[in-house]
Specification:
Elements lengths: L2 H27 L8 H27 L3 H15 L7 H15 L2 H32 L10
């Protein structure tokens, strides 16, 4: 990797970690849902972080082992996973970047992770919600008291 990338990574990584940890803390402590506590939100954030960290490490190991086609397929499979799981959360970006930093530096994983997060946001929050809404409108519902 070029030295300027390592220099930018040295500045970017602490800044990114601080910003994302601030966002994680803010999300966990500002839960307005009565069924969720800050402890549950932090636990969910920990699961997202660890999952993304392991995924980033797996991608880095596969790429280092010369299996870049398999790493690419895993990245493409992440889009199907993003339809069901919110990968756009800050803890996922932080885990992904930290998992890949040793192999690729901090800049490239941050750019790739941000792109994956944006696609994951569109897939999970908009496309999935739209399909669920359309499916609810198309499928008949059982309404009590209606003869049919």
């Amino acid at each position: 990797m070029p030295e300027i990338s390592n220099w930018w990574g040295g500045l970017l990584l602490p800044l990114l970690a601080g910003l994302l940890l601030f966002r994680i803390r803010k999300q966990a402590l500002s839960q307005t849902d009565s069924h969720s506590t800050p402890t549950q939100a932090l636990l969910r954030a920990l699961y997202g972080f660890v999952g993304a960290l392991l995924f980033g490490v797996l991608i880095a190991v596969l790429f280092t082992a010369g299996k870049s086609d398999m790493a690419g397929n895993l990245l493409l499979g992440l889009f199907a996973f993003a339809f069901f799981v919110p990968i756009y959360r800050p803890e996922c970006l932080l885990g992904f970047v930290l998992g890949m930093t040793y192999t690729f530096g901090a800049v490239l994983p941050m750019l790739i992770g941000t792109g994956l997060g944006l696609v994951g946001l569109v897939l999970h929050a908009y496309l999935r919600r739209g399909l669920l809404y359309a499916g609810a409108k198309v499928l008949p519902t059982n309404k009590p008291g209606v003869n049919g």
